Amino acid sequence: MTISYSDTFLKLLFRWKGSLWKAIWKHLLIFLTMYYIINAYYRFGMTKEQQNEFIKYVMLVDGWTKEIPLTFLLGFYVAMIVRRWWDCCQLISWPDHLLYNVSALIRGQDPETRIIRKTIARYAILTSVLAWRSISLRVLARYPTDDHLVDSGLMTKEEMVMFKSILVHVDPHQKWWVPLNWIQTMMVRCFEKGTLTHTNELRVLLDALEKYRNGFFQLFIYDWIAIPLVYTQVMSMFESIFKPETKKKHNC
């Protein structure tokens, strides 16, 4: 899970890892050194006439800074946040579409076929739990260990042994796609047995399975690659700087 930036303003600004300060501290140190040298020279080394002339140049440069499109930057940042949030809402994968196709195409009332449909449904829900456990803290609190998956009935003990034997050297939270491979194998076997009578039926099921998997994959990308903290800190500082000016305009 990525680091959450939805914290208080001061804590957000003073985060170090991946922060604005970590990126510019050397340049900031040089700037502050030059600033205080010029400041000391202005106060103790210039005459009154030289100070007045220096102030004119300061006001001229200060006027140039107002040409920076900070409002555009803030608008772009808000638009990016809203688009990212809405994309995450759209990418939430529900098993309904996949299971509709499974129910329609894997036909039969014999015990074996019914078990196949129920197992595919269970694997689909198991996939969502494994994926969300790496993204959502609430799901992780509900299923903190693999044993909780067995206790809830989402996975049998035999399946747990098989699950743990796959890619042992990989972080267990990255194995959310394993049940999807099991579903794919079951679909292919149904086609080989004749339960699926045409390749088009197998293609429809595999496309639905791919769509279901792709939603979780895209959510993982959003979770792994967060909005850079540097950009968030810069926008937060801009917002705090421009709030007083906005209030003054409204008061006028």
Textual characterization of the structure:
Belongs to the anion channel-forming bestrophin (TC 1.A.46) family. Calcium-sensitive chloride channel subfamily. Keywords: Cell membrane, Chloride, Chloride channel, Ion channel, Ion transport, Membrane, Transmembrane, Transmembrane helix, Transport. There is one protein chain. 75% of the residues lie in helices and 0% in strands. It has helices at residues 9-13, 20-44, 48-65, 70-90, 96-105, 111-133, 137-142, 146-151, 157-165, 178-193, 199-224, 229-251. Helix 4 packs across helix 12 (229-251), helix 5 (96-105) packs antiparallel against helix 11 and helix 6 packs antiparallel against helix 10 (178-193). The relative contact order is 0.13. The two termini are 46 Å apart. The protein is an all-alpha fold and 252 residues long. It is elongated and about 100 Å long.
